[in-house]
Specification:
Length: 260
């Protein structure tokens, strides 16, 4: 999926939800050691910085150089561009080697990965027996009884333009393969469901939609899903362009450790 998000990298910074600090505390409580964490598909580094509050060193990697150029600096976070051409052994050496990682995090990204290849790499990298992988995402946004049906109709117009892997997100990771032993924070077929509150402006909401890969793909094919009339309908249901609303993103998480 390299390059899928390069075009809309600028929209990511303001549009995406901020994951609650309690999530990082919960993950940190699952691992006995807190020396090294790996944030995969780090994007602008939001999750990496959250993890860095609890771990001595965090390595944030991404295949998108455009995303990494917008990554937020932090003294305990080291960002690395990892093109698809990099070998597993090269990647392992960059991160810390076999059995070295206490926590692997993947925020809104694991569904794009070559899962057997990625899970094999995670199994080698995680410290044993205590290392944990946590993968999470979000799909729906809940705004108001008036707004939400309009959002549902818009989402339906985007369906032909999503990569098939996005179905994992639509299913809230219930169908995502996750071959790890449960640690009590969501397991294969049974994700932990979580709400993500956010104060969101109307412009921020539009930025969220513009950051969707389906909207960009449609535009490349000459289809403007966010036409002026669609934006006006959203704006009216939102309550006007200057209103900041309290919204809820519907999140979900899977977490586990290597089966020994």
């Amino acid at each position: 999926m390299a390059g899928l998000f390069d075009k809309q990298a600028d929209f990511y910074l303001d549009a995406r939800p901020t994951y609650p600090s309690e999530w990082y505390s919960m993950m940190a409580a699952l691992t006995p050691h807190h020396s090294l964490a790996w944030d995969v598909g780090t994007g602008n580094g939001q999750a990496a910085i959250g993890v860095a509050e609890h771990y001595e060193q965090v390595v944030g990697t991404d295949v998108s150089d455009a995303q990494l150029k917008l990554a937020m600096p932090h003294p305990r976070v080291r960002y690395l561009h990892t093109p698809l051409s990099i070998t597993d052994d090269e990647l392992m050496a960059l991160i810390g080697g076999e059995n070295s990682v206490d926590l692997v995090t993947v925020a809104q990204a694991v569904h794009w990965f070559d899962l057997p290849k990625f899970y094999s790499l995670v199994t080698r990298l995680l410290s044993k027996p205590g290392g944990v992988i946590a993968a999470w995402g979000y799909n729906d946004i809940v705004v108001s009884p008036i707004f939400d049906p309009i959002m549902k109709r818009f989402h339906d117009t985007t369906l032909p333009y999503w990569n098939p892997n996005a179905q994992y997100v639509f299913d809230a990771y219930k169908t995502l393969p996750f071959p790890f032993e449960s640690v009590g924070a969501g397991s294969e077929g049974k994700p932990l469901l979580l709400d993500i509150p956010k104060e969101l402006s109307f412009e921020g909401f539009l930025s969220l939609l513009r950051s969707w890969s389906s909207v960009t793909t449609a535009k490349d094919q000459g289809v403007d899903l966010l036409s002026e009339s669609v934006v006006k309908e959203f704006e009216s249901a939102w309550g006007g362009p200057r209103l900041v609303r309290s919204v809820i993103y519907k999140g979900f998480m899977l977490a586990g450790k290597v089966r020994l």
